[in-house]
């Protein structure tokens, strides 16, 4: 067993204002995406100008925050929101959903694409390799907060989390598993895959497929939200249900992208 480092969720205070590590992780995600986006936009064949990335990240940030909060309210906290609709605005009480954030980003990217005269999948293919930075940072934030822990385990790296609801037995540090898969592994896969010309939709499809698979797998060792529990079979979670459409759509987009590319290539022979 490894001792859990007892982090203070508050990084520092400025008078009455408390700056939490989780908020800093969001900032790291946005700044990292902005920096790497501008770097990639400088490539002669990128089809992007560095200054376009500034607005892209702004639209994406709005999509993440608004979609993430609304998604959590609808997917994970619907009954409580029905009882108290103002609860949806109480962001300080926590509650963000990746799948809601993804939908929010897709809406934001559609609006941005129309504004700058680009096709929707041109925008999503460009932004997809930048997203894992924020995903990995966010999971580190979950770990620092000591939340979203895993199931009880006897693996040598199991940890006892400080939250009384986690009990006294070591658990999987599932936040770190997700940081490694959704953050590091997904970033490397997408960054190198997109470093060469790919058919339109292929990068977006690979993002959906890989994230969906990674999230589905980690959910087997992550404890579901207490008020939801398992939805079926004694193991199916809401996270897995929401990941299945991502996997399916990812496969469809990848197949469609390469099918169209092959047809286009044959038509020019």
UniProtKB/TrEMBL annotation:
InterPro entries listed in its UniProt record: Lgt
Q: Keyword NAD on this protein?
A: no
Q: Which Pfam families match?
A: LGT
Q: What is its EC number?
A: 2.5.1.145
Extract one GO cellular component term from the record.
plasma membrane
MF (Gene Ontology): phosphatidylglycerol-prolipoprotein diacylglyceryl transferase activity
Q: Where does a 1,2-diacyl-sn-glycero-3-phospho-(1'-sn-glycerol) bind?
A: 139
Q: What is this protein called?
A: Phosphatidylglycerol--prolipoprotein diacylglyceryl transferase
Which organism is this protein's natural source?
Nitrosococcus wardiae
């Amino acid at each position: 067993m490894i001792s859990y480092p007892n982090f203070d969720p508050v990084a520092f205070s400025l008078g009455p204002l408390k700056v939490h590590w989780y908020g800093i992780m969001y900032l790291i995600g946005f700044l990292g995406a902005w920096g790497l986006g501008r770097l990639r936009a400088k490539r002669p064949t990128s089809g992007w100008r560095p200054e376009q990335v500034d607005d892209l990240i702004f639209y994406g940030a709005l999509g993440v925050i608004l979609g993430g909060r609304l998604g959590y309210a609808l997917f994970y906290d619907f009954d409580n929101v029905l009882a108290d609709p103002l609860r949806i605005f109480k962001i300080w009480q926590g509650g963000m959903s990746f799948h809601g954030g993804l939908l929010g980003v897709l809406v934001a990217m559609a609006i941005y694409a129309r504004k700058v005269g680009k096709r929707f999948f041109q925008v999503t293919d460009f932004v997809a390799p930048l997203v894992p930075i924020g995903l990995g940072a966010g999971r580190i934030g979950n770990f620092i907060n000591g939340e979203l822990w895993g199931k009880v385990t006897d693996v040598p790296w199991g940890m006892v989390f400080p939250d009384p609801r986690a009990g006294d037995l070591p658990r999987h540090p599932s936040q770190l598993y997700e940081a490694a898969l959704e953050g590091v592994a997904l970033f490397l896969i997408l960054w190198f895959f997109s470093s060469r010309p790919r058919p339109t939709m292929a990068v977006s499809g690979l993002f959906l497929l890989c994230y969906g698979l990674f999230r589905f797998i980690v959910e087997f060792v992550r404890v579901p939200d207490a008020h939801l529990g398992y939805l079926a079979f004694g193991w199916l979670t809401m996270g897995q249900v929401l990941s299945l459409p991502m996997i399916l759509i990812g496969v469809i987009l990848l197949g469609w992208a390469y099918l169209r590319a092959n047809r286009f290539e044959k038509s020019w022979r």
